[in-house]
Design the sequence.
């Protein structure tokens, strides 16, 4: 169940992992991917203690919270305020700077239990609870900070789950974007984020967390391998997977992945492909 000197969470067994990945691959290719199911499968692939009963319990908790929302409270602002009062005020869902340092902040089952998490995972809670209650809700992937939107573009209301669901003014949203990019927001940034984009961004956060902690390259590798199951994934993920395999001492498998990536990019960047094949050769040499 993982290396004894590492803190939890520990990964599931190989058999359990294979089953979870099969289910994940099936869900991401479905006509309407289920965001909460995908996030919980990510959680189970990262945390071997999350079994199917735990996944069902997390889904039931989302259902229960949705049942506490008022019936059709009104327009977009009324929905945003109702969800804020329920999740932010009554149940205490919010985030703090320290949550960026915790892997649990990217795992939906942990966020439901701790009432704490990264902006995107707290937004998943907002989205799934509000959606179950019939709200016109969607994710908004602002640069560097994920929020939720209620209602059509003409009278859209944005809320920030990381701040307990605080309803944002136009200036608030602009400041978030300027702070992340140095430029004012483009209208396209406010478009609803499809479920698979949300899932990819969750996995990106996990990869970034693991990249800053070389001893947890296992987490990074699992996140990359799940991301590779998503249709239209970036080809460069294969390069990252190869590097992680080499880092973890799987030199042959890593070299093969690097060579495969070099084959993919050779047509557009022959020099880069040559350099990556040299990396693969270096990896194979480590076996001697």
Sequence:
């Amino acid at each position: 169940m993982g290396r004894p000197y590492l803190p939890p969470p520990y990964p599931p067994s190989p058999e359990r992992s294979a089953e979870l990945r099969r289910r994940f691959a099936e869900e991401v290719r479905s006509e309407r991917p289920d965001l909460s199911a995908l996030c919980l499968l990510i959680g189970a692939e990262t945390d071997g203690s999350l079994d199917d009963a735990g996944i069902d319990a997390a889904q039931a908790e989302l259902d229960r919270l949705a049942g506490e929302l008022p019936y059709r409270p009104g327009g977009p602002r009324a929905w945003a305020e109702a969800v804020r009062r329920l999740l932010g005020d009554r149940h205490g869902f919010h985030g703090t700077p320290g949550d960026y340092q915790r892997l649990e902040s990217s795992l939906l089952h942990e966020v439901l239990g701790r009432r704490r998490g990264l902006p995107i995972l707290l937004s998943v809670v907002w989205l799934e609870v509000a959606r179950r209650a019939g709200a016109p809700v969607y994710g908004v992937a602002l640069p560097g900070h994920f929020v939720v939107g209620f209602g059509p573009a003409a009278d859209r209301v944005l809320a920030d789950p990381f701040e307990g669901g605080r309803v944002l003014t136009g200036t608030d949203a602009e400041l978030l974007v300027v702070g992340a990019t140095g430029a004012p927001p483009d209208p396209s940034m406010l478009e609803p984020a499809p479920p698979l984009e949300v899932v990819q961004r969750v996995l990106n956060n996990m990869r970034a967390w693991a990249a800053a902690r070389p001893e947890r390259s296992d987490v990074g590798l699992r996140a990359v391998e799940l991301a590779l199951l998503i249709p239209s994934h970036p080809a460069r993920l294969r390069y990252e997977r190869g590097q992680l395999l080499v880092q973890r001492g799987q030199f042959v498998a890593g070299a093969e992945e690097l060579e495969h990536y070099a084959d993919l990019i050779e047509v557009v960047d022959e020099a880069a492909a040559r350099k990556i094949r040299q990396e693969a050769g270096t990896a194979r040499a480590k076996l001697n």
Notes: The longest strand covers residues 137-142. The chain has twelve helices and five strands.
